[in-house]
Write a structure and sequence with these properties.
Length: about 110
């Protein structure tokens, strides 16, 4: 659909196309989530390397303190979660731009 009324036409057909879009978008959401998690982990390693000379501690390292292990896990979780949320939100906005249908649920206020 192209032209000046394309967005209106897409919105008019939104109910009919919405379930199909969820099925078609599922592999892309999965791929985007995996890419975002990988990018988040790389960003965490770079952030950790900038702040520390040693590698991030593993939870099973005997000589590491609880504070360092839990701090590293919290920082990694934060960075990965923000990267995944950014990717999912960007993907939803892209789908909405291309199809005229927001792929998620509308929140009630």
């Amino acid at each position: 659909m192209r032209g000046p009324n394309a967005n209106r036409q897409r919105r008019a057909h939104a109910g009919r196309y919405a379930p199909d879009m969820r099925i078609l978008a599922a592999p892309f959401r999965l791929l985007a989530g995996l890419l975002a998690a990988g990018a988040g982990r790389k960003l965490f390693k770079r952030t950790w390397a900038a702040a520390n000379t040693a590698d991030p501690p593993r939870p099973t390292d005997r000589d590491e303190t609880w504070r360092r292990v839990l701090g590293a896990a919290a920082l990694e979780g934060l960075i990965v979660a923000v990267a995944r949320a950014t990717m999912r939100r960007g993907g939803a906005a892209t789908v909405a731009h291309l199809t005229g249908v927001w792929p998620g649920q509308r929140t009630q206020r």
